[in-house]
């Protein structure tokens, strides 16, 4: 994320460099003095300097303002110079040339607050509207959109006429429409004509802008705005319901990931494994370690660290799972209460071990760029991290189905579960199959851990938050049935998300628990009950 | 039922047995003053409280290097309450009765404080509580060195209303006593200021909540009504990371909808990438980035003690430092570590805080503090954008709630009461 920002800043810088050097000379008297004053300025003085710099209309001040807003502008306490620092390169804010500050350099960042950042982005909009880079122009148009000023109208008109990118032009037209709508001089007709342009171009902010404009609008324009808002609200209600379904699916996919390993160990093998959550936690810590190694040795691969962590986490937690099965659980088959206690103790031991090694504080896994941010899919706001987790959960689920139904190991697993003695008589090494099954379940928990690094804390307690939910999903879906887990997780996710807006997060969760209790009363074997004699034993 | 009880008793015994052994056995019994440290070193709260235990060991080591107190060395007695509040009460009793400590520094959550209160009252010992809390309490044996709502929540709301022009408010919190009470006070305060009822949205989530999609999109919708909106967050520790991450992913920027948090400090931020958080706010009485010589020295000493130059300092650590120094001064003034003598001598004592001001122990057992508003930077530090001109005295009973505005706490003669009713002139809380 940080590197991404830096890269963007660098890009802007390099694009503007030629024009900047040329023009810096024109106003050389004023600008350097102002920039030098930035070092020791208070917030109020900084605001004043930003306004003055922007009023020069000189493109040469764009890098210094961008750097200030991004937090890349520094004061060298030793020499009193103001410089831009990007990563390890230090440049002069005006010339863009590299600066060598020597060994005594003591850089301290020139800090800004929200208000100043807003001012800078408004000031920059005016200067970067004609930039060569479409992304910069789009940002400039959006800047105008959030801070409309009638004085900018001629500039916008000029930019719209010259614009070639349809997307950017849309944003500029919306900005122009908003400016007209909020300006006092514009005619009624112009204002009425501006309303649909705002609706078309301002995206999700349209309602905010129109509601804001409504209060000051002349009476003749009010009906148009109200109608437009009503139309938008209606659209939002429909999309709101769909959005809820998406939230539900995304919550369901997280539940599915956490529960699916348990569906193997608890559902197929019948082992009540209270340490399942800790397998998830270990998967997350493995991801953290993998990313640490990659960051130190192969920074170029950072964006793919999660993909690299997947097999590693699977193998690590799978191996630990096999170890647990061989070391503890195999001595306790047929004694569910003891298994429960032993695995619960194990979960405490694992938690405290991790806490002793890594400390009690959260660890950080940086989100890869392809998992940050969100996109608008018609009226839906879909965040990338959730989107990829849904896809990932589906892949894991179908891979697991494939393994259980189409591989020799899966066949043996099912045989051992259905009739251990018969399977043994047929020559299947049941202890080996037990270990592999438990290892598979644990490995999948580790995979869930990799995904959870993107939405939750990586702390020793990570697993605790999911263990109850996981058992709930498996029991609700029907013990021993993968499809049951699948449907169970999605049902719980969607139901939770539909209750939440009405009942609140706390009451929603309680209601879900009550509903599950009632459901289990009526169907003790869950949604998809296994049938047959094996169950009766 | 029997089974679970036996299990928890067993567990408690095991924990108490294994962990509560004094960590520094050292010197002969009669030559030392024992200081109890009552924090969670395991369980959910370990993330915040482990550092406070280290802070106390650090302060005690420093004091011992200066010659101790009353010519005696201080001896820390560390127990682990394991984020288990009934256990906290048992361990508090053990500290006072078995280990014979003279003072206890401890607790983080309000529920921990409420659990151990009766023990300190019954055994007449001293507790210094270092964390910002919901107020509506003043107890003779407890000294509240963290902020009360008028030292944190109210100034933060004032800042947003005046400096950022906020008109619509989302009060989001974790579902327990501190956020509930704070939000009750804030809601009343906002209503009194003339904010309309429909411009306030209150939302509670369970501990450790991780799926913020619906709530964040609700906040976004609530903020799209044309008025400047802000979120006042009393969301507790662990749930904050997914909350901020969802805010960032759904594209809510601090410039549009700022979030001001009361429970997010340097320690909490050290666990993640703060780039998406830049510009969001926190209100505290101390930030690590405060530029004073006292603070610089404190940070340098702390990092040397802990052996790492990346360890951060935070507000509750400063509170422990202030509480500890006030206690040392009170003991020296009283010439004794007896609880009653210390309670009498500590009121009115002053000690410098780390932000260039003075912390004074008030008769209501709260202290004076400056209020700072900081913006989160991408290095996990806070940049102070606003601070109160004067020190703000802590108020035990909120002036904005009708049921507590006539109450005052004063533990000096002649009142000597934690909930003195200024209308009826009696001790004993609100007239029913």
From TrEMBL, chain A:
Cellular localisation: Cell membrane
Topology versus the membrane: Multi-pass membrane protein
Main location: membrane
Entry-linked Pfam families: BPD_transp_2
One GO term of the biological process aspect: amino acid transport
Segments traversing the membrane: 245-272, 279-298, 304-324, 336-354, 387-404, 471-495, 501-520
Molecular-function GO terms, alphabetical: transmembrane transporter activity
Entry GO terms, CC: plasma membrane
UniProt keyword annotations, A-Z: Amino-acid transport, Cell membrane, Membrane, Signal, Transmembrane, Transmembrane helix, Transport
Cleavable signal peptide: 1-24
Organism domain of life: Bacteria
Record family assignment: Belongs to the binding-protein-dependent transport system permease family. LivHM subfamily.
Protein name (Swiss-Prot/TrEMBL): Urea ABC transporter permease
Organism (species): Devosia riboflavina
Lineage of source species: Bacteria, Pseudomonadati, Pseudomonadota, Alphaproteobacteria, Hyphomicrobiales
From TrEMBL, chain B:
Name assigned to this protein: Branched-chain amino acid ABC transporter substrate-binding protein
Keyword GTP-binding: no
Entry keyword Signal: yes
InterPro entries in UniProt: ABC_urea-bd_UrtA, Peripla_BP_I
NCBIfam families documented for this protein: urea_ABC_UrtA (TIGR03407)
Entry keyword set: Signal
Pfam families referenced in this protein's UniProt entry, alphabetically: Peripla_BP_5
Cleaved signal peptide residues: 1-28
């Amino acid at each position: 994320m940080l590197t991404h920002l830096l890269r963007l800043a660098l890009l802007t810088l390099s694009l503007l460099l030629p024009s900047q050097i040329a023009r810096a000379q024109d106003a050389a008297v004023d600008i350097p003095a102002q920039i030098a004053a930035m070092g020791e300025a208070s917030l109020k003085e900084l605001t004043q300097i930003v306004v003055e710099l922007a009023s020069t209309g000189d493109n040469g001040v764009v890098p210094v303002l961008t750097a200030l807003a991004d937090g890349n502008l520094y004061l060298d306490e030793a020499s009193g110079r103001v410089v831009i620092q990007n990563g390890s390169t230090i440049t002069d804010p005006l010339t863009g040339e590299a600066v060598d500050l020597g060994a005594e350099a003591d850089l301290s960042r020139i800090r800004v607050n929200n208000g100043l950042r807003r001012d800078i982005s408004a000031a920059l909009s005016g200067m970067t509207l004609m930039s060569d880079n479409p992304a910069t122009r789009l940002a400039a148009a959006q800047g105008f959109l959030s801070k409309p000023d009638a004085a900018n109208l001629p500039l916008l008109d000029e930019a719209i006429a010259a614009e070639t990118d349809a997307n950017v032009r849309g944003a500029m037209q919306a900005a122009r429409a908003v400016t007209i709508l909020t300006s006092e001089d514009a005619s009624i007709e112009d204002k009425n004509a501006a309303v649909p342009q705002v609706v078309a171009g301002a995206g999700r902010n349209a309602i905010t802008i129109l509601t804001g404009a409504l209060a000051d609008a002349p009476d003749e324009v009010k009906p148009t705005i109200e109608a437009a808002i009503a139309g938008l609200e209606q659209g939002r209600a429909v999309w709101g319901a769909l959005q809820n379904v998406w939230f539900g699916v995304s919550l369901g996919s997280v539940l599915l990931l956490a529960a699916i390993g348990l569906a193997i160990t608890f559902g197929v093998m019948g082992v009540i494994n209270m340490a399942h959550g800790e397998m998830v936690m270990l998967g997350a810590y493995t991801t953290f370690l993998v990313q640490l190694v990659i960051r130190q040795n192969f920074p170029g691969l950072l964006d793919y660290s999660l993909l690299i962590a997947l097999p590693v986490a699977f193998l690590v937690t799978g191996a630990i799972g096999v170890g647990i099965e061989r070391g503890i659980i195999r001595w306790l088959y047929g004694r569910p209460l003891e298994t429960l206690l032993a695995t619960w103790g194990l979960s405490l031991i694992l938690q405290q071990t991790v806490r002793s090694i890594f400390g009690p504080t959260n660890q950080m896994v940086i989100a890869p760029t392809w998992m940050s941010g969100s996109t608008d899919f018609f009226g839906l706001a879909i965040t990338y991290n959730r989107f990829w987790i849904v896809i990932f959960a589906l892949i894991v689920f179908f891979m697991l189905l494939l393994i259980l139904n189409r591989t020799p190991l899966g066949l043996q697993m099912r045989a051992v579960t259905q009739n251990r003695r018969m399977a043994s008589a047929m020559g299947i090494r049941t202890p080996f199959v037990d270990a592999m099954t438990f290892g598979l379940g644990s490995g999948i928990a580790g995979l869930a851990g990799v995904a959870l690094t993107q939405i939750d804390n990586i702390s020793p307690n990570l697993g605790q938050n999911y263990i109850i939910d996981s058992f709930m999903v498996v029991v609700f879906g029907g013990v021993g049935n993968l499809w049951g887990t699948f449907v169970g997780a999605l049902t719980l996710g969607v139901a939770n998300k539909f209750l939440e807006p009405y009942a609140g997060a706390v009451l929603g969760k309680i209601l879900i628990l009550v509903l599950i209790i009632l459901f289990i009363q009526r169907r003790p074997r869950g949604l998809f009950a296994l049938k047959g004699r094996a169950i009766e034993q | 039922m029997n089974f679970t009880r036996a299990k928890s008793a067993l567990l408690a015994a095991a924990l108490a047995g294994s962990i509560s052994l004094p960590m520094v056995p050292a010197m002969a019994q009669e030559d030392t003053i024992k200081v109890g440290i009552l924090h969670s070193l395991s369980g959910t709260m370990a993330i915040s409280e482990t550092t406070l235990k280290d802070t106390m060991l650090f302060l005690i080591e420093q004091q011992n290097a200066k010659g101790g107190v009353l010519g005696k060395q201080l001896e820390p007695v560390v127990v682990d309450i394991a984020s288990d509040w009934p256990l906290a009460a048992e361990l508090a009793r053990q500290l006072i009765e078995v280990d014979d400590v003279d003072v206890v520094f401890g607790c983080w959550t309000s529920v921990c404080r409420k659990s151990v209160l009766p023990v300190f009252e019954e055994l007449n010992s001293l507790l210094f509580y270092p964390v910002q809390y919901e107020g509506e309490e003043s107890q003779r044996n407890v000294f509240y060195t963290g902020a009360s709502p008028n030292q944190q929540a109210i100034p933060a709301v004032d800042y947003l209303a005046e400096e950022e022009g906020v008109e619509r408010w989302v009060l989001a919190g974790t579902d327990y006593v501190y956020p509930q009470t704070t939000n009750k006070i804030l809601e009343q305060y906002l209503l009194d200021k003339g904010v309309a009822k429909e411009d306030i949205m209150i939302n509670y989530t369970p501990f450790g909540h991780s799926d913020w999609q619906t709530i964040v999109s609700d906040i976004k919708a609530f903020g799209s009504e044309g008025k400047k909106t802000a979120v006042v967050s009393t969301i507790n520790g662990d749930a904050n990371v997914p909350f901020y991450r969802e805010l960032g992913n759904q594209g809510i920027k601090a410039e549009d909808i700022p979030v001001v948090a009361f429970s997010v400090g340097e320690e909490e931020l050290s666990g993640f990438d703060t780039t998406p958080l830049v510009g969001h706010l926190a209100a505290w009485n101390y930030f690590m980035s405060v530029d004073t010589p006292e603070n610089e020295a404190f940070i340098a000493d702390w990092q040397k003690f802990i052996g790492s130059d990346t360890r951060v300092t935070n507000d509750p650590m400063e509170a422990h430092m202030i509480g500890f120094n006030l206690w040392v001064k009170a003991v020296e003034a009283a010439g004794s570590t007896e609880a009653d003598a210390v309670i009498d001598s500590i009121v009115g004592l002053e000690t410098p805080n780390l932000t260039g001001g003075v912390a004074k122990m008030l008769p209501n057992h709260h202290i004076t503090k400056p209020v700072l508003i900081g913006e989160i930077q991408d290095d996990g530090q806070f940049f102070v954008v606003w601070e109160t001109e004067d020190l703000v005295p802590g108020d035990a009973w909120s002036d904005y709630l009708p049921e507590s505005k006539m109450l005052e706490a004063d533990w000096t003669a002649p009142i000597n009461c934690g909930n003195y009713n200024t209308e009826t002139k009696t001790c004993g809380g609100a007239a029913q």
